[in-house]
Amino acid sequence: MAEATFGAQLRECRQAVGLSLRQLATRVGYDHSYLSQVERGQRPGSAELARLCDRELGTGSELTSAFAPRRRSTQAAARTTDPLEAAWHGFVAVFGRTDALGDFRSVPPAQLLPELIADLRVLQSDSAVEAAQLSVLTAQTLTALGQGSAARRWWLAARVAADRSTEEVRSSVLAQEVISGLAERRPLLQLLETAGEAGGAVVQAHGARALVLAELGRYGEAHRALQELIGFADELPSASTGPLAYEVHVTEGRVCARLGYGAAGCVLLARALELCPDEWVGERARLRMGLAECLVVDGEVAAGVALALRVLVELPDEWHTYYLYDDAARVLSAVRTREPGMAVTLQELLGRRPYLDNRSVGTGSSSLR
Question: How far apart are CA 324 and CA 318, in angstroms?
Fold first, then answer.
């Protein structure tokens, strides 16, 4: 069954019982913007979503049955193979698109990955921008789940698509690969070369270069790159409000932490936290971990450790990611430098890594350490 037909049927059933999108989203545990995209035929939905909606809307198995034919057709090509592998071959066969990525940051990585695979399998057109975006998101999600080997070729796919796109898209893709590469502990000189290829067409490109230079211990150059980032952001008309302001504060805050500007980093990341939607649970956790690092760097070791421990203990397991644990490892490193005795409990918690238990889709082994 076509996605648009399933979405239209879902909307009809929802409206028949008088529920709004937000009300249904709350009941089934999905973001309302995602449900809106499913109803408009922009996202494929899932068998699990159909089942939950049947339950909440009292439609028996109507929606589950409506979704099943489409699900069978998209799975037919991969009946005997890994779904992630099938998605990759589908991407190679047809350059692909996705009409809307949706509010992906409100979905845990292990839940998001099957949806991405569904999108990758129904790619239809030759849109370089959308192919690059979807490839980046797939690579980041795989890395978040500790599947570094599988993520590498999706970064390659993102580069291929970006090379056919605009300068801004290419700059953004390369910058995001550099930032992810830092967490993956890729060779720094290789990342610096990639940061140079990214140029300076977007905020993240300036930040990526500054971060790599700081990791290399080239603090003078990193500081100049930070100043270039600030100057670039100041010239953007929308940099003081909305999503761009959030991106600027996050990037500047992380660079300040690497350069040892703890107090400045705290201010910038606190501003970013104010702009970060509540439903971006994983993103907020990473911001708080960044704040913990800045507190430790600024000499407030006890406060930083307490914050880091609180994040790891209170955060639901589905939101624990490889990226979060890399952030926490940076906090641990800073604590060991200043107050080694306070590092024990944090080090014990870092051994849990529940995201390794969430890799239910795909068989790519991790190369992350």
Answer: 12
Give tens-digit pLDDT for 131-150. 888 889 999 999 999 998 88
Which residues span the domain enclosing 320?
298-359
φ/ψ region of 11 (left if φ > 0, alpha if ψ in -120 to 50, else beta) reads alpha
Q: Among 69-83, 172-186, 248-262, 353-367, whose mean pLDDT is lowest?
A: 69-83
Are residues 292 and 311 in contact, defined by beta-carbon separation less than 8 angstroms? yes
What is residue 60's three-state secondary structure?
coil
Residue 43: CB atoms within 10 A of its CB come to 25
The last residue of one of the domains, among 165, 183, 200, is 165
Asked, for residue 113, whether it belongs to a domain, the answer is yes
**Could you tell me if residue 60 is inside a domain?**
yes
Q: What is the pTM of this model?
A: 0.70
What CA–CA distance (Å, rounded) separates 324 from 328? 6
3 state SS of 213 = helix
32 Cβ contact list (under 8 Å, min separation 6): 21, 22, 24, 25
Number of domains in the chain: 3
Residue 74 has pLDDT above 50, yes or no: no
Residue 36 domain-assigned? yes
SS3 114: helix
Domain end among 30, 55, 80: 80
DSSP string, 229-285: HHHHHHT-TTTTSHHHHHHHHHHHHHHHHHHT-HHHHHHHHHHHHHHS-TT-HHHHH
Report the C-alpha gap between 355 and 357 in whole angstroms: 5
